[in-house]
Q: What sequence folds into this?
């Protein structure tokens, strides 16, 4: 599975081929110039010890002072080039990282938007945010530096290994003994720590979910004086994150000291064997000093393998969660037919539906809603009214039976085409954090300012908008919390007016406002209803008294249907509800 995740991450990087090739070249050049200082030190020692017989002396520069000046110029050039390539490599790798993260984040988010409503009802927004934000950011730590460190390590092994073999194959053998031990230990380390990092990411997801719940429901928290309870809840989640990290830290911290012991062996072998060979005159003193310096340059960077593999495992734990979300498939399959304009009717034909198997919500429901009709669905709480709305919007699919638009099975329609014909004004109004006009314009992204103001006027929202501090540019706050319930509802209606739908669904649109506000909103709704097919769900029967037809839903079944006067005269379910609301009972 890890190899599969790495392959998927590689496929994302393949799309950055040109940048990656440049970054690899910059990293190799950066490391080559970074490895030069030990050689420069060796040349300096060579000048002092050997004089005219030094490396530079053999090139024709016999004067020692002249050799030192030349060495100083070389040092300046090499260090300048090393710094330059270090900068351009870092910038290029980080840009590649940002490009990959952006693509992963947007592709995953786009897939999430296509998922069914059921998925969101089972997965909290806090948990999704943990994946789309925290897990993607976790990738950044590996992508920024991980690949570059691996290239540096490989370049170091090849260059220094070649230098060792050139100077003394015997010393090379002993100096390289720790390398397979370090590499083997690194792989064992990553295998062991992988599960611990998966546990960390899962605990962080739970913490994010709890934080989101506490902050989103801050009004409820404060009104019930439950700050202490929320503190304990977050403290418990944070404790789980801390404990999971403790387990990983203990293992991670133990890895570097073990690697250093292996490194000590290689350095000591070079120190002793190379020293004996220098004393015996088998190698020059300058060569011996170069060997000592580059031994550290060879072995100490290998400790970075532990950090690199550590970052890799953290990244893979996050990437696995990201790809799982990205590859989640919707259960509702998009149709292929267009519903360009709603012409005839919406039909429920013996529809059965249940959210969970064995718990039926709708039972053999059959209704017909003709174009231009104003129909209402009433019933007690839990009778299945809102479920019917979800089926009309195809947020769920029926278990049995069929829902048809203009004689076309709803399953055969393109979801975008279907929903483009429908506007929903719900009791649960969601406003985005932005300006008043931005929220109204959500109904039609191509609308101009005049059209937005007209929608506001028709919904009677223009009066309160002109009284706001920044008028139409006033920021409404998260979920519109800076506005009253009635103001939010009018913006919702204006949004629906701007969409100009064929079918209007009113899901208890006035249930959360006072009588005066309800009357004003009802006037707005009356202007919105003109020339449209209207489906209204209402607890306040006074709001649907003039409907062309009223369906009474009880326990998932249509038990009565007719006009208001017809249903009152029957004297059964609807009549009883009417009597309760008018005070006759």
A:
């Amino acid at each position: 599975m890890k190899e599969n995740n790495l392959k998927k991450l590689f496929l994302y990087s393949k799309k950055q081929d040109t940048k990656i090739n440049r970054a690899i070249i910059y990293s190799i050049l950066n490391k080559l110039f970074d490895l030069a200082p030990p050689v420069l030190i060796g040349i300096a020692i060579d000048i002092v010890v050997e004089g005219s017989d030094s490396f530079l002396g053999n090139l024709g520069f016999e004067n020692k002072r002249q050799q030192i000046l030349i060495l100083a110029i070389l040092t300046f050039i090499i260090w300048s080039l090393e710094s330059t390539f270090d900068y351009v490599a870092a910038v290029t790798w980080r840009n590649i990282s940002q490009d990959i993260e952006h693509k992963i984040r947007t592709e995953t988010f786009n897939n999430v938007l296509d998922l069914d409503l059921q998925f969101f009802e089972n997965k909290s927004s806090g948990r999704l945010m943990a994946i789309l934000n925290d897990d993607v950011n976790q990738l950044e730590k590996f992508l920024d530096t991980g690949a570059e460190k691996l290239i540096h390590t490989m370049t170091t092994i090849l260059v220094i290994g070649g230098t060792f073999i050139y100077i003394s194959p015997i010393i090379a053998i002993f100096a390289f003994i720790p390398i397979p031990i370090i590499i083997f230990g690194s792989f064992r380390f990553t295998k062991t720590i992988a599960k611990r990092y998966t546990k960390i990411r899962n605990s962080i997801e739970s913490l994010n979910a709890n934080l989101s719940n506490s902050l989103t429901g801050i009004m409820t928290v404060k009104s019930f004086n439950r700050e202490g309870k929320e503190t304990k809840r977050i403290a418990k989640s944070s404790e789980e994150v801390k404990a999971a990290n403790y387990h990983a830290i203990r293992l991670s911290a133990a890895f570097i000291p073990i690697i250093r012991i292996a490194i000590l062996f290689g350095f000591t072998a070079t120190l002793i064997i190379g020293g004996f060979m220098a004393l015996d005159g088998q190698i020059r003193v300058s060569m011996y000093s170069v060997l000592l310096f580059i031994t550290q340059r060879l072995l100490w960077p290998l400790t970075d393998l532990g950090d690199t593999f550590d970052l890799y495992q953290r990244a893979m734990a996050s990437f696995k969660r990201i790809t799982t979300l990205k590859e989640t498939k919707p259960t509702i399959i998009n149709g292929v037919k267009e519903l360009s304009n709603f012409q005839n009717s919406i039909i429920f034909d013996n529809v059965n539906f249940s959210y969970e198997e064995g718990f039926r919500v709708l039972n053999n429901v059959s209704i017909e809603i003709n174009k231009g009709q104003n129909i209402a669905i009433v019933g007690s709480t839990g009778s299945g009214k809102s479920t019917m709305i979800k089926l009309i919007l195809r947020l769920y699919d029926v278990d049995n039976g069929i829902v048809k638009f203009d004689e076309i099975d709803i399953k055969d329609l393109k979801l975008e085409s279907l929903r483009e014909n429908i506007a929903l004004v719900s009791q649960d109004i969601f406003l985005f954090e932005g300006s008043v006009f931005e929220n109204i314009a959500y109904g039609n992204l191509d609308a101009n300012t005049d059209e937005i103001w007209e929608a506001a006027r028709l919904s009677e929202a223009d009066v309160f908008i002109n009284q706001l501090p920044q008028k139409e540019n006033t920021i409404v706050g998260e979920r519109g919390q800076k506005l009253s319930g009635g103001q939010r509802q009018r913006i919702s209606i204006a949004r629906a007016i701007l969409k100009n739908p064929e079918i209007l669904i009113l899901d208890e649109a006035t249930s959360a406002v006072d009588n005066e506000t309800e009357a004003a909103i009802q006037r707005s709704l009356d202007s919105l209803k003109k020339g449209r097919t209207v489906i209204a769900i209402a607890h306040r029967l006074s709001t649907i008294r003039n409907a062309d037809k009223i369906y009474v839903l009880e326990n998932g079944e249509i038990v009565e249907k007719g006009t208001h006067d017809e249903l009152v005269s029957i004297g059964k379910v609807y009549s009883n509800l009417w009597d309760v609301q008018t005070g006759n009972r």
